[in-house]
Amino acid sequence: MTDPTVLERITQALCAGLATVPVGDGTAAVFRGRRNGIDAARFPAYRVNRGDFESEQASSAHVVNRQVFHVEGLVVGDDDETADRAAIALAEGVRGLIETDWTLGGLAVNSTVRAGGPDDAGTEDVPYIVGVLVEIDVEFWTKPGDPTALAP
Predict the structure, then answer these.
(1) Distance from first CA to last CA of the chain, Å, rounded?
(2) Buried b vs exposed e over 117-132: b needs ≥16 C-beta within 10 Å?
(3) Which of 10, 69, 109, 113 is deepest in the core (most CB within 10 A)?
(4) What is the pTM of this model?
């Protein structure tokens, strides 16, 4: 079995970190790579997907990689106000996680967080579902020709 790439290890570290973020009396469920179909009974939840990726050979010693992660926080509340507050708390949880360890376990060189405001995702059956999208730009360096090895 080959070693996981640095990008895969970063993805795993992000998902593992999100699973520890305090939400209410517990933590949120974390779903990786799910485009849709999360039952509201599983909320609060984070849905983590990879966005844009770019890679640039900066020198003979390292490649600069940048990955955007889309982290969607999903909550259900008893009314608009409680759902809105809960969604903002999920976004703040992501920000706090990255502020605490912006290197994601020593794998990243830099991480930047951008968050949008809460957005209604309710349905007729469950009207008070709110989602909030947080984008995390992660920069990491690898050795040329070896995506499994961190570069100095």
Answers:
(1) 25
(2) ebeebbeeeeebbbbb
(3) 10
(4) 0.90
